[in-house]
Amino acid sequence: AQSVTQLDSQVPVFEEAPVELRCNYSSSVSVYLFWYVQYPNQGLQLLLKYLSGSTLVKGINGFEAEFNKSQTSFHLRKPSVHISDTAEYFCAVSAGRGSTLGRLYFGRGTQLTVWP
Amino acid sequence: GAVVSQHPSRVICKSGTSVKIECRSLDFQATTMFWYRQFPKQSLMLMATSNEGSKATYEQGVEKDKFLINHASLTLSTLTVTSAHPEDSSFYICRAPVRTEAFFGQGTRLTVV
C-alpha cells in the first residue's frame, strides 16, 4: 500500500517570496504522483503530475515539483507566490500500473497562506 | 478536459432525513466513481468505490446502509446519506478516473441540523 506524508500542516509566507511544500511517500511499487489545490468549499484542481520521464514537472500557476526517487519525495515549489495562491494543497500518490488511474492516497494537506 | 458535475454544492437538512448527492460525468463515460469525505482541515478519506452496474465497494468502517451508493449508468453516480445526523455533516467529493487523470466534482457541503 502507498502512503503520503506532508510534513507541514501550515506554511505562512509573504507575497513574492519563494515557497516549498514538502511531500514524501512510501510505496513498494512505481508510483504516479500528484499535487492538487483546493480553495474553500470547492473540489480539487490538478496542479501537476508525475507519471514518468523528466523528474522536474511544471504545472499551472507557476508551480513545479521534482520527483526524487532516492528520497521518495515530490516537493512542490514556486519561486514567487501571490496572494491568490492562498489555499490548501494536497499531495497524492497512486500505484503506477495500468492505463487507468486507480485509488489515490492523499496527504493530510498543507495550508499555504500568503500575506501582503 | 473532462468535467464532473456534482450537485448540490450546499445542502442543509434536518436530522433524520435523507440527502442525495449526484455526480455526473458531462462529456465522458465514468465506469468508476470514487466517493470521499473531508472533515474541516483534514485530508480526503475514501468512503467507497462505485462501478457501473455492480455493487459499490466500501472502505472499512463506512456504514453501507447509511451511505448508499448507486452507479446505475455510465454518466451518473449518486451517494445518499440516509437518516442523517449532525455527525454526518461534512464535505463530500466525488472523483472519476479518466486514464491517468482524476477529475473531481465541485464537492457538496452537507450540514445536518
CA radius of gyration of chain B is 13 Å
Task: State the helix count of chain B.
Answer: 0
- Biggest sheet overview of chain A: 6 strands, mixed
Biggest beta-sheet profile of chain B: 7 strands, mixed
Q: Helical element count of chain A?
A: 0
| Percent of residues in β-strands of chain B | over 45%
Evaluate the radius of gyration of chain A: 14 Å
The largest contact between protein chains, plus residue counts on each side, is: A-B, 23 and 25 residues
Uncertain parts of chain A: none
Query: How many E strands of chain B?
Result: 11
Mean of residue pLDDT values of chain B: 92
Question: Per DSSP, what share of the residues of chain A sits in E-state strands of 2 or more residues?
Answer: over 45%
- Shape label of chain B: globular
Beta strands of chain A, count: 12
H/E topology pattern of chain A: EEEEEEEEEEEE
Mean pLDDT of chain A: 90
Structural class of chain B: mainly beta
Helix proportion range of chain B = under 10%
Structural class of chain A: mainly beta
The end-to-end distance of chain B, rounded to whole angstroms, is 37 Å
SSE pattern of chain B, N- to C-terminal: EEEEEEEEEEE
Give the topology, please:
The complex is a heterodimer of chains A (116) and B (113).
Chain A: E1 3-5, E2 10-14, E3 19-21, E4 24-26, E5 31-38, E6 44-50, E7 56-58, E8 64-68, E9 73-78, E10 87-95, E11 105-106, E12 110-115
Parallel strand pairs in A: 2-12
Antiparallel strand pairs in A: 1-4, 3-9, 5-6, 5-10, 7-8, 8-9, 10-11, 10-12
Chain B: E1 4-7, E2 10-13, E3 19-25, E4 32-38, E5 44-51, E6 57-58, E7 67-73, E8 76-81, E9 90-98, E10 101-104, E11 108-112
